[in-house]
Amino acid sequence: xxxxxxxxxxxxxxxxxxxxxxxxxxxxxxxxxxxxxxxxxxxxxxxxxxxxxxxxxxxxxxxxxxxxxxxxxxxxxxxxxxxxxxxxxxxxxxxxxxxxxxxxxxxxxxxxxxxxxxxxxxxxxxxxxxxxxxxxxxxxxxxxxxxxxxxxxxxxxxxxxxxx
Length: 164
Fold this sequence. Notes:
Blueprint (H helix, E strand, L loop, with lengths): L2 H33 L3 H21 L14 H10 L2 H13 L5 H19 L1 H40 L1
Helix pairs in contact: 1-3, 1-4, 1-5, 2-4, 2-6
């Protein structure tokens, strides 16, 4: 992919991810209420989904499926589910439920995280050359382990909420 096209894809993917995250940040509570899903259940499900992603990272199985030619890769698979996947959506909804009323910190956090993501994606070729293949494996393993710990924490809080 040429540099100009890659830039357009990155910009679109991050913009779509921000919109989806903000939609779930403000509308997620209503969706859960309508479907009669508790936050404890959401924590358990989100923890399990994060754990699955962490296990994929630890096993080195992160390849995304091949996408049809007509489909816009900025939306699928980049924006959804990679940037704004089930774990991220769950986290955003939980943070909104637990934050004070104006929710400014969550909104700023979403935008800041997506800015850092945008920056990393823009610099991905340089970062890849700098850390090399071995560095990628090490970083993926470390982040996978930390994500697994976070997943267990989120899931265990959900289990406590459901049963205790």
